[in-house]
Each structure stands twice: as structure tokens, then as C-alpha cells.
Amino acid sequence: MKKILILILALGLIGFYSCKKDETKATLSSSPNAAVLNLASGAQIVLKKTDSAQLITFSWSAASFGQVVVIGYTVEMDMVGNSFKNAVPVVQASNALTASINTYDFNQKVLPMEYDPKNPTPINMEFRVKAVINVNLDPLYSAVVPQTITPYYVKIVYPILFVPGSYQGWNPADSSTVVTSKTSNGLYEGYIWFGIDQALFKYTQGPNWTTNWGDDGADGTLNPSGANIAAGLHGYYKLNVDLPNLTHKFLLTTWGVIGDAASGWSTDVPMAYDTIAKTWSVTTNLSAATFKFRANGGWDLNYGDDGSNTGKLSPGGANITVAAAGNYTITLNLSQPIYKYLLKKN
Fold first, then answer.
1. Residues 264, 290: Cα–Cα separation, whole Å
2. Average pLDDT, the chain
3. pTM over 0.85
4. Residue-level pLDDT at 30
5. Average pLDDT for residues 217-227, to the nearest whole number?
6. Which structural domains are found in the chain, ordered by start?
7. How deeply is 104 buried, as exposed, middle or buried, from its count of CB atoms within 10 A (0-12, 13-18, 19+)?
8. Which H or E run contains 203?
9. CA nearest to 241, candidates 213, 278, 218
10. What is the DSSP track for 116-150?
11. For 228, which of 20, 145, 194, 278 is 20 to 30 Å away at the CA?
């Protein structure tokens, strides 16, 4: 059975926007309509692997701008309470009032939001429709509609950007040097070891040079086929790419353990990087208390565990609990899309 998510969108506009063509002004409507969204499939959806080819169709009413204009629509989703900070585009359309996605592809967008993707549980989600007519005009959004979705487990295929450079022989087909978009929203992140000083690198869309980006001004702006990006000293770099806005940043990191389980909340216990295992580790005595991981001796970049010692890390997450005092080997693994840690008592 086709699952239909009907998003009835009535968008208004506060203020005016005008464009000029052949000396004729087009003024947008100043009479907003209340947004009304209706999910015909109900408040809860359970996705099934057996329905992977079935289409999920989103529908909405036309936005009214007072003139005939080309309107681009995007259905976005995010977890409840996240205020669409990590909005994931689900479907898109131009001057059309419906768009579809098959269940498999939709599941691939929802599953990465699970704390433990191998054991999916219901996720409280929110949906909205974004309407855009001009890059110079802020997007208009429908009212938010909540829905609970339970995905099914399959191996997640994350979108990736390859990161060829002088540190790995300028090989764009090397799948071990990539950054990942865990929510398929064009925001990519990853950690890579640059084994040489002053490494040069670029980003490529695929395992070739057909579509690549550099940084012509070394100003954090990505340019198609642009200049090589220059890093600094050799080491472990955190890379972030915002492809929709063509921006990027990178940060050299060293990692440590901090907390009252270790040496207190003012002194880090340094960790060492293993270039073969691609992990950070330290063996140290811990008391029955809590700790976290942080980079560069500061709190700007730190990880904890919001799932009560599940082994999966969250940025700025909750303190990790050590149940019993003893000598432990602590391992930090940031080399995969899902960041993890291991606490092993010796």
C-alpha cells in the first residue's frame, strides 16, 4: 500500500518583495494564510524492509506569493526538539505539489538518527515544507507536523566526500580518507590523520577528479576546481564541509580523558594515537566516578555518552560513568561515521 504523507501548506508573507522585469513590478501577497498540515498516514509509521520499493508520497498545497513565480519546495525533517538544526531534505520539487521517495531511501535518511542503528526504536520526528522563490528572499516554512517513525536496520550507506591530498598520494579513489554526511543533508564531517607537515588536500564528489573543490583564497570558502587547501603540522585533523553553502574548516586535534574518574576536571590524561588501528588510547587508573573526552585541552570540542554507557559518543554529551575503580584501557575511535569508545578493565 502506498503511504501518503499529505502536507497541506498555506504560507503567508510578512513584508514585501519585488522583482523587475521589462519595467514591470511583481509584488508578493501581504495576506498570510494559516499553515495547515495533515499527515494522512497517522501519527506513527513503522517502516518495513519488505516495503522497500513502495513509494512514500508527500503532497502540499501551493504557496501563494501574489504573482506567478517558480517556487521550489523541499520537505524537511528533523528530530523533535532539535529546531531543524540538522534538517534533512526528504524530497524536492519545483512548481509541483507532490514528490515521492521509496521506502528504502527514506529509511536510509531516518536510520542514522537512531542512537543504535542496529536496534531501531521509534523516533519522534518533525516535518515541514520550505518554499523558496529567490536566493535573496528568506525561505518560508509551513507549520511543523510531528510524526513518530520506526526505521528498520540495514547497512547504512552514508554520502561521502573523498579527501585526496599530498599526505596519501593524491588518490581520489582512496575510500579510507573520506568525510561523511551522517544525516544526508550536505554537511560532512570526519577525522583524518595527515602524516606529513604542511599537507595539501582537496575534496572530490566521487573517486575521481571530475567534481572537486579547493579554496582559492584560503578563507574557508570552497571553489569548484579551486586551489589546494593547506594544513599545518602533521597530526589528526577534524574536517567539516558545508556543501550547500560551499564552506569548510579543519582543526588539528589531540585528545585526552578528563573527569573525577581520572585526574579531576582541570587536568587531562593525554591519549596516544595509533596510526594502524586509527584509534586514540590510554591505560590509566580510574576511580568509580565519571569522565569525558575532550580535544586540545579545552571544552570547545568534547564528547560524552548520552545513552548511559552505550559506547556511542555524542558531541557535548553526558559524562561517562566508571562503575568500579581499577586499571582501565580507554579507546577512542573517531575513524568511523559513528564515533565510539571502549572502556576495558585490565
1. 10
2. 86
3. no
4. 58
5. 97
6. 3-150 (no CATH), 160-253 (2.60.40.3620), 255-345 (2.60.40)
7. middle
8. strand 203-204
9. 213
10. STTS---EEEEEEEEEES-TTS--EEPPPEEEEEE
11. 278
